[in-house]
Design a protein that fits this description.
about 270 residues, alpha+beta, 4 helices, 16 strands, about 15% helix
């Protein structure tokens, strides 16, 4: 039996209305679910309140599925999500850890997605976290029990996803400032920088670099990130006359080769 046109329009209008309502009143847990999936369960948004468009939650680092390790950031992160041009602008605030307001521009397309950090006016860093937060990731971070802080900055940073692959533009720098560890009597150990930069000679490839800014623990290394997989080779050693104070730490963070500790990933 053919339905009258008025009935078809009524059903269509009801479906459209339900869809719009679902989008407008989408719960904050939708964002939490997406973040968990994107991070393979290592970064969680717990105790969510509000909606996808205006909500808050608690950021948690974990060792992944099945892990008992977890570490919470103090306070709640608050966000708003609003249309901007052909994309969406995510604005986040957290008193402990975000410099003013962190903005992330999402630009979806046909089979593609762009994610960029608009220039943060007057900000030389975007976020900062206590290094102890890394303990939530499990081994070896829970053994090291780091003190000090971490500070993230960006230079023309953008991620593009197309044809099943991610491509990075620009650079991210993560500074570890005045680190200490419970397995070493020497404090602070030093300050360090880990950089992830787009490789201009190879699309879809990012270069990794670890360097020492200052301190008695000397860290260095380099590697590449491609296809979602990282390969990194680094080493750690003590400055002259600091070997005894750092010997136990060097045994934990890598494979000992004489005075050096070799760090290998991938």
């Amino acid at each position: 039996m053919i339905k009258p046109p008025s009935l078809r329009w009524s059903l269509g209008g009801a479906l459209v209305g339900a869809l719009i309502g679902l989008i407008l009143f989408a719960p904050a847990s939708w964002l939490a679910r997406g973040l968990a999936q994107a991070s393979n369960g290592h970064l969680l948004l717990a105790e969510t309140r509000g909606s996808l468009w205006s909500g808050s939650g608690v950021l948690v680092l974990t060792g992944g599925t099945g892990s008992r390790d977890a570490s919470l950031l103090p306070g709640r992160i608050e966000w708003t999500l609003a249309p901007k041009g052909l994309g969406l602008l995510l604005s986040a605030r957290q008193a402990c850890c975000i410099n003013g307001e962190l903005q992330i521009l999402l630009q979806p397309g046909l089979g593609s997605l762009g994610l960029s950090l608009p220039q943060q006016q007057g900000a030389d860093w975007l976020t900062r976290f206590p290094a102890a937060w890394l303990g939530g990731l499990g081994t070896p971070w829970n053994t090291l029990q780091l003190g000090g802080g971490m500070r993230l900055s960006a230079r023309e940073f953008r991620l593009e996803w197309a044809q099943g692959r991610w491509r990075q533009l620009g650079q991210l720098d993560l500074d570890f400032v005045n680190l200490s560890s419970r397995v070493s009597t020497l404090a602070p150990l030093g300050s360090y920088r880990f950089s992830v930069a787009a490789d201009p000679a190879a699309a879809g490839v990012s270069t990794l670099r670890l360097s020492t800014l200052e301190g008695a623990l000397l860290l260095s290394g380099q590697g590449v990130l491609s296809g979602g997989k990282a390969r990194f080779q680094g080493e750690a050693q003590a400055a002259p006359e600091r070997e005894a104070a750092l010997n136990n730490l060097l045994n934990i963070i890598g494979r000992r080769q004489g005075a050096r500790s070799v760090i290998s990933i991938g």
